[in-house]
Design a protein that fits this description.
- The structure is a single chain.
- This protein is an alpha/beta fold and about 270 residues long.
- It is built from twelve helices and six strands.
- It has helices spanning about 1-25, 35-45, 50-55, 60-70, 80-90, 90-105, 110-125, 170-175, 185-195, 210-225, 245-255, 260-265; strands at about 30-35, 130-135, 145, 150-155, 230, 240.
- It has a four-stranded mixed sheet, sandwiched between helices.
- Helix 2 crosses helix 5 (about 80-90), helix 7 (about 110-125) packs parallel to helix 9 (about 185-195) and helix 10 (about 210-225) packs across helix 11 (about 245-255).
- The longest helix has 23 residues, at about 1-25.
- The radius of gyration is 22 Å and the shape is globular.
- Residues about 1-25 have low confidence and may be disordered.
């Protein structure tokens, strides 16, 4: 008789387990789309199939790369694909491509970091749009490109602060941020700036707007890392702007106003 009562209990436990598994699997997994590999196939092999993929599967990524990142013309120009190919066949760029292949054969750690970051943001803002993330080679032009719900990661800007060719183009403070460990933080930072501050890249003047400091505070909060105390200066490429006073004010405000949510902080306009 006692065994008859165990069956309903077992069913309840099984249902609870299944429900728990469903709840744990609601996180939207971020997959990094390797656009850089498609581009490399076109450049190295002259592959028509790869070129077709660029134009049909990656039209916006290709447009951003040609017109905004590399600034070599318009995608409407008939010979722009050839110019793109010649650009990447440069010996210096080829060295960057080889190093990217070596260091970024696997990006599962980046995908896990982005998944966690965007999931936490989704909890703070239910309307937060999960972006489509892809990789590119910017020829050392830009680290992160954001457009609408696209995030482009330039892997050639994250080859490590000790990567020898970097020392010809970047100063010490910049080199510290050009590592694999900074990709997730950079992607989240620029996406939040685009989503909550302005679609245009904010001007890094000598007096940093409070909204930029708020984004840096949120990124640190979401990722559980120390906030960055400086940002690059547009006026002097060898110096950074110290934003620590702004971060201190934001941190003090959040401690004094614990009822303020991350979303409310990002939406402040002053």
């Amino acid at each position: 008789m006692r065994a008859r009562h165990l069956f309903p209990l077992f069913c309840l436990l099984l249902a609870a387990f299944i429900w728990g598994c469903k709840g744990a699997g609601t996180k939207e997994k971020v997959r990094v789309d390797r656009f850089d590999r498609v581009l490399d196939e076109y450049v190295s092999l002259g592959s028509y199939t790869s070129l077709q993929k660029m134009n049909t599967q990656y039209p916006q990524q290709t447009k951003l790369l040609i017109e905004d990142v590399l600034d070599i013309g318009s995608v409407e120009e008939p010979d722009v694909e050839q110019r793109l190919r010649y650009f990447y066949l440069d010996s210096t760029v080829q060295l960057l491509l080889e190093e990217v292949h070596r260091q970024y054969a696997d990006m599962s750690d980046i995908e896990e970091g982005l998944t966690l970051a965007f999931d936490r943001m989704k909890k703070e803002d239910p309307d937060f749009p999960i972006p489509h993330v892809y990789t590119q080679i910017s020829c050392l032009r830009q680290s992160i490109v954001v457009y609408d719900t696209l995030i482009g990661i330039s892997l050639d800007k994250y080859l490590g602060e000790d990567y020898p060719p970097y020392r010809r183009y970047f100063h010490a403070n910049q080199l510290k941020s050009m590592t694999r460990d900074n990709i997730v933080a950079d992607a989240l930072t620029f996406y939040l700036l685009y989503s909550y501050v302005s679609p245009e890249t904010p001007k890094m003047d000598s007096k940093l707007p409070r909204s930029i400091a708020r984004v840096h505070w949120v990124v640190a909060h979401i990722l559980g890392i120390p906030p960055r105390n400086s940002i690059p200066s547009n006026r002097d490429t060898k110096k950074d702007i110290d934003i620590s006073p702004w971060l201190v004010k934001v941190d003090a405000y959040m401690k004094e106003n614990p009822q303020t949510t991350v979303l409310q902080l990002l939406q402040m306009k002053d």
